[in-house]
Design a protein that fits this description.
The complex is a heterodimer of chains A (about 300) and B (about 260). Chain A has about 300 residues and is mainly alpha-helical. Chain A has a single domain, classed as Orthogonal Bundle (ABC transporter involved in vitamin B12 uptake, BtuC), CATH 1.10.3470. By secondary structure, chain B is α/β, with parallel strands linked by helices. In chain B, about 40% of the residues lie in helices and about 25% in strands. Chain B contains 10 helices and 10 strands.
Chain lengths: ~300, ~260
């Protein structure tokens, strides 16, 4: 048995350990789900945006000696622009084509970004500079790591920020309106192209923040570093119900915790397999995801 | 009276099918004008062309409420910003959003704050949001929907959804309104309420309205002029009394009935 003879307090510790990585998956999943919500595209290049975010932050820190917070904000800005450019160049011309065409283009963009990064930075493994304290506190027998806590709090702050933008602002209203009905939104005076563009910018900025945090967490970086987290965040988005923001957040945390539990009590080798098995199960049992209503979507 | 909407020699072809051929007419300022015709005559297509969802194959559409401007070929959101809005035959509200948010979306282009203002929540942003909130509420009050502000649009009864859709189009500050079959699917009482509602907003807000409708009682009772389309052409353009007796109009409608009869056998 996988979980035989496990003491409850260690289970609790493991769950706590899953929160930081889960919050990172949630950030990436939000980008997937926002883009899907607004143009019904699974943006498979999203993992690579995450990678570009990590690399650019590393460059800002090591080459320009910028503090972490500034490097992170600049890398979010970089990927926001990158996301808008990708949308304009690769996806916008295909908006009226079949969804398969756009999906395959997204996979193409993903390979393109990986290989451009290979070309620029080479295949060597970079290490993310250690700029965050690695202290660990023990509180009531619970081990809390400063970096993990920082990741968790940053992610939560960004998610709250996104909630605010989506529910309280002009852009957020436009995004929700365009997601429901592009033509009707346009006829209400909403610039649909601009709104879609900004959705890519927001999603990409969140991915960059996640990339920076994963860079700090796992330290080693390659141009392929976005693939697995990207895929897992996609699973998270599907798990929660793709197109739904609360679903993506819940899915991210769930996948992070499940992964950590499997790594802790089963085997690290199993953790990816379990995540993908979840994807298969969700698609078999409830394709619309945990929070999805199912069957209502008109294509 | 000056004309605010000029449609000149508009054609719209879908492949080999001429959905609209050589459509020309003007709509005058403050007019409540009907647009009728048998099914498939091209009424909704014409609305789609005017509101910018379709680009006409040839011909031009000019909007002259402030300054004269050719709108055919412009993006729909720009046409809306110039003061022309529409509703849809099948209600297309933002269903999961509240009534208030539906109105706020329509006020989109009246909000000036930049994204940066928004993200760091400057006083400018707060002031603007507060202004939009109160304007949206005042607006809802003026169309008597304010008590429903916090309800989900999809939870309203059918008749009120229709009213909300018209209100939402109005909230764009449009002075010219295209209404596509607002009474479709309504019972006689709801239709009567709607007629009163349209009459009221037409007068109180000084609107110019172009109205597609199949309910002849409604159209005859509230419009001052009726344009009749058949097979993508304008076959009549006259006051309601004359339309009733126009032989071409009668033929267009009876002809359609005869066809239905043949299909029924």
């Amino acid at each position: 048995m996988l979980f035989k003879g496990v003491r409850h307090d260690t289970i609790f510790t493991t769950i706590i350990n899953g929160l930081p990585i889960g919050s990172v998956y949630a950030l990436v999943a939000l980008g997937y789900t926002m883009v899907y919500g607004i143009i019904k595209l699974i943006n498979f290049a999203h993992g690579e945006i995450f990678m570009v975010g990590a690399y650019s932050a590393m460059i800002f820190i090591t080459m320009f000696n910028l503090p972490l917070w500034l490097a992170m904000m600049l890398s979010m800005l970089t990927t926001a622009i990158l996301g808008m450019v990708i949308e304009k160049v690769a996806y916008k011309p295909l908006r009226k084509s079949s969804r398969t065409a756009a999906l395959i283009t997204a996979i193409g963009v993903s390979f393109l970004l990986q290989n451009v990064m290979l070309l620029i930075m080479g295949a060597r493994i970079y290490t993310f500079p250690q700029v965050f304290s690695n202290t660990t506190w023990v509180v009531n027998g619970l081990r809390v790591n400063a970096l993990q806590l920082g990741m968790f709090l940053t992610s939560i702050a960004l998610m709250l920020g996104l909630q605010f933008v989506v529910h309280q602002t002009k852009l957020g209203r436009a995004m929700r309106a365009v997601a429901v009905d592009k033509d009707a939104a346009a006829l209400m005076g909403v610039d649909v192209n601009h709104t879609i563009s900004m959705t890519f910018a927001l999603g990409s900025a969140l991915a960059a923040a996640a990339g920076v945090m994963v860079g700090m967490y796992y330290i080693s970086m390659t141009p392929y570093m976005g693939f697995a987290p990207g895929l897992k965040a996609f699973v998270a988005a599907v798990f929660g119900g793709i197109g739904l923001l609360p679903g993506a957040m819940f899915g991210g945390f769930a996948i992070g915790i499940i992964e950590t539990l499997v790594a802790g009590y089963g085997s690290t080798l199993f953790k990816d397999a379990v995540v993908y098995a979840i994807l298969i199960l969700v698609l078999l049992i409830k394709p619309s995801g945990l929070f999805g209503k199912g069957g209502k979507e008109k294509v | 009276m000056s004309s605010v909407l000029q449609i000149k020699r508009v054609n719209k072809a879908f492949g080999g099918l001429m959905a609209l051929s050589d459509i020309s007419f003007d709509v005058n300022e403050g007019e409540l004008c009907g647009l009728i015709g048998p099914n498939g005559a091209g009424k909704t297509t014409l609305f789609n062309v005017i509101s910018g969802l379709y680009t006409p194959t040839s011909g031009s559409i000019t909007l002259s409420n402030q300054s004269s401007k050719v709108i055919s070929g412009l993006a729909p959101y720009k046409i809306t910003q110039l003061g022309l809005a529409r509703t849809f035959q099948n209600i297309r509200l933002f269903k999961e959003m509240t009534v208030l948010d539906n109105i706020k979306v329509a006020m989109h282009s009246q909000i000036q704050t930049s994204l940066l203002d928004t993200l760091i929540r400057t006083p400018q942003y707060r002031k603007e949001e507060a202004r939009i909130e109160s304007e949206a509420l005042t607006f809802l009050k003026s169309v008597k929907l304010d008590h429903l502000a916090q309800k989900k649009a999809s939870s309203l009864p059918y008749g009120q959804q229709r009213q909300l859709e018209i209100a939402r189009a109005l909230a764009t500050q449009a002075k010219i309104l295209l209404l596509d079959e607002p009474a479709a699917g309504m019972n006689p009482q709801e239709t009567e309420d709607l007629a009163q509602f349209i009459k009221k907003i037409h007068q109180e807000k000084g609107l110019t309205i172009l109205l597609i409708e199949h309910d002849m009682n409604l159209i005859m009772s509230i419009t001052s002029r009726i344009i009749v389309l058949d097979y993508g052409k304008v076959i009549a353009n006259d006051v309601p009394e004359k339309i009733k007796t126009n032989p071409r109009v009668i033929e267009a409608y009876l002809g359609e009935e005869r066809e239905e009869h043949v299909e029924g056998q």
